[in-house]
């Protein structure tokens, strides 16, 4: 009955000025708080102890394994290979003096060839730098502003992706056959 | 930041233009030229010395190596075969049918490899001498030249064009390239600085406003596409270094040669 009277009063008010004073609040939708359970202090202490022990155990385990390094499998020679190494050695006839001489000669020739190639490369670099400097100087003579714009770092250039050159040109629309995927990663504690 | 830089520079540029015209004795036209290069797709063919040395290296590699599992298996197979021939070992018929020898495997691998065709190092465009194609002379760097009207006559030159007020030389180069060669041509410019320079004077009749042209070259490498301009077709060619020099005017070729690799 009282609710009805309140509502009727509300409608009376809302017909007037007070309509904007009516708000619904989230509190209306809430339920009363649960009564807090009181725990036995001894149980609380027990729980804390258990937690502490667990952490201590973890720390002990970590300390024990601290010296032990994770093995890098690729760097370890399989025992099987070490065992039958003698079996795997090639029995080749030793090289003759003439052959050794020829090889030494070829190596010398190669060193000479590579040296000349390197010198030529340096000359090309010098030439390119010289050409660029000349261009910049000429640009500066024309206009200082253009020169300043030209010596700015090009931030868009990096990162730059370059591919090739390769031994044979790529085949157009080639679909590479799928291989097998074997997951072999070991877990190390 | 870049945008701000270009704004500043463009503001300064317009100022510079007014001061330079007022103080100029000889006014030069500023051009941007673009050296577009198609980088090599495949590695160079080895010369005799390189080939010889590579053979030596692989020989040394073989001598220093140990036998592989496959080689050991092959040896065991040979021994087994010998024993069977001498009759010392009984042949188990069921076993011999299923057992594959190393030699069999090797033959199978070879057969499989034969089925795979690698692409040829020369292309149809090489044979047809199609100079407008970028899919030729895969071993060499190719450079783009186009026919442009300079003065009264047309010449083969690197794409070039006049600078507009307010542009930096790099911006000019980018604009000129897309105007001359179309949007289809995708290139990567190497930096803001020009790599080369060339200047020439106009014939004396044409020296009305300016004495001649100063060309600043920018280097760019081809990423994709080819020259493609709608409406008009311009003659263009992709040339390796050797034939490039023959195609160009002598003095021009001298200047270009300084920054070719």
Automatic annotation (TrEMBL), chain A:
<dbReference type="InterPro" id="IPR019192">
    <property type="entry name" value="Ribosomal_mL40"/>
</dbReference>
<keyword id="KW-0689">Ribosomal protein</keyword>
<keyword id="KW-0496">Mitochondrion</keyword>
<protein>
    <recommendedName>
        <fullName>Large ribosomal subunit protein mL40</fullName>
    </recommendedName>
</protein>
<keyword id="KW-0809">Transit peptide</keyword>
<dbReference type="InterPro" id="IPR039145">
    <property type="entry name" value="Ribosomal_mL40_metazoa/plant"/>
</dbReference>
<dbReference type="Pfam" id="PF09812">
    <property type="entry name" value="MRP-L28"/>
</dbReference>
<comment type="similarity">
    <text>Belongs to the mitochondrion-specific ribosomal protein mL40 family.</text>
</comment>
<keyword id="KW-0687">Ribonucleoprotein</keyword>
<dbReference type="GO" id="GO:0005762">
    <property type="term" value="C:mitochondrial large ribosomal subunit"/>
</dbReference>
From TrEMBL, chain B:
<feature type="domain" description="Large ribosomal subunit protein mL46 N-terminal">
    <location>
        <begin position="28"/>
        <end position="126"/>
    </location>
</feature>
<dbReference type="InterPro" id="IPR033650">
    <property type="entry name" value="Ribosomal_mL46_NUDIX"/>
</dbReference>
<keyword id="KW-0687">Ribonucleoprotein</keyword>
<comment type="similarity">
    <text>Belongs to the mitochondrion-specific ribosomal protein mL46 family.</text>
</comment>
<keyword id="KW-0496">Mitochondrion</keyword>
<dbReference type="InterPro" id="IPR040008">
    <property type="entry name" value="Ribosomal_mL46"/>
</dbReference>
<dbReference type="GO" id="GO:0005762">
    <property type="term" value="C:mitochondrial large ribosomal subunit"/>
</dbReference>
<dbReference type="InterPro" id="IPR015797">
    <property type="entry name" value="NUDIX_hydrolase-like_dom_sf"/>
</dbReference>
<keyword id="KW-0809">Transit peptide</keyword>
<dbReference type="Pfam" id="PF11788">
    <property type="entry name" value="MRP-L46"/>
</dbReference>
<keyword id="KW-0689">Ribosomal protein</keyword>
<protein>
    <recommendedName>
        <fullName>Large ribosomal subunit protein mL46</fullName>
    </recommendedName>
</protein>
<dbReference type="InterPro" id="IPR021757">
    <property type="entry name" value="Ribosomal_mL46_N"/>
</dbReference>
<dbReference type="GO" id="GO:0003735">
    <property type="term" value="F:structural constituent of ribosome"/>
</dbReference>
<dbReference type="GO" id="GO:0005743">
    <property type="term" value="C:mitochondrial inner membrane"/>
</dbReference>
């Amino acid at each position: 009955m009282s609710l009805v009277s309140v509502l009727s009063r509300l409608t009376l008010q809302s017909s007037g000025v007070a309509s904007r004073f009516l708000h619904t609040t989230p509190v209306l939708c809430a339920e009363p708080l649960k009564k807090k359970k009181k725990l036995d202090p001894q149980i609380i202490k027990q729980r804390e102890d258990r937690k502490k022990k667990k952490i201590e155990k973890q720390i002990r385990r970590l300390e024990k394994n601290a010296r032990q390094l994770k093995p890098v499998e690729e760097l370890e020679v399989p025992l099987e290979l070490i065992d039958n190494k003698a079996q795997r050695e090639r029995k080749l006839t030793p090289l003759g003096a003439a052959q050794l001489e020829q090889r030494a000669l070829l190596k010398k020739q190669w060193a000479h060839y590579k040296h000349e190639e390197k010198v030529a490369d340096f000359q090309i670099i010098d030439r390119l730098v010289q050409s660029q400097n000349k261009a910049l100087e000429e640009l500066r003579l024309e206009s200082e502003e253009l020169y300043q714009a030209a010596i700015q770092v090009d931030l868009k250039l990096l990162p730059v992706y370059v591919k090739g050159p390769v031994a044979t040109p790529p085949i157009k629309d080639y679909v590479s056959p799928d291989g097998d995927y074997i997951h072999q990663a070991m877990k190390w504690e | 930041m870049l945008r701000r830089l270009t704004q500043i520079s463009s503001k300064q540029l317009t100022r510079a233009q007014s001061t330079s015209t007022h103080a100029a004795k000889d006014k030069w036209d500023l051009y941007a030229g673009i050296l577009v290069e198609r980088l090599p797709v495949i590695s160079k063919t080895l010369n005799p010395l390189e080939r010889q040395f590579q053979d030596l290296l692989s020989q040394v590699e073989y001598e220093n190596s140990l036998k592989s599992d496959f080689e050991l298996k092959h040896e065991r197979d040979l021994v087994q075969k010998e024993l069977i021939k001498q009759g010392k070992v009984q042949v188990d018929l069921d076993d011999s049918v299923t057992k594959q020898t190393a030699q069999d495997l090797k033959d199978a691998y070879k057969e499989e490899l034969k089925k795979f065709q690698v692409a040829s190092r020369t292309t149809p465009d090489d044979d047809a001498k199609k100079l407008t194609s970028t899919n030729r002379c895969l071993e060499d760097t190719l450079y783009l030249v186009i026919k442009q009207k300079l003065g009264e006559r047309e010449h083969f030159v690197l794409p070039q064009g006049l600078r507009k007020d307010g542009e930096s030389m790099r911006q000019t180069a980018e604009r000129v390239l897309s105007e001359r060669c179309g949007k289809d041509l995708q290139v990567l410019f190497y930096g803001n600085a020009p790599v080369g320079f060339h200047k020439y004077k106009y014939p004396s009749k044409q020296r009305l406003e300016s004495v001649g042209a100063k060309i600043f070259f920018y280097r760019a490498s081809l990423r994709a596409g080819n020259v493609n301009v709608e409406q008009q077709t311009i003659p263009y060619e992709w040339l390796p270094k050797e034939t490039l020099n023959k195609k160009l005017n002598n003095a021009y070729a001298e200047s270009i040669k300084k920054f070719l690799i």
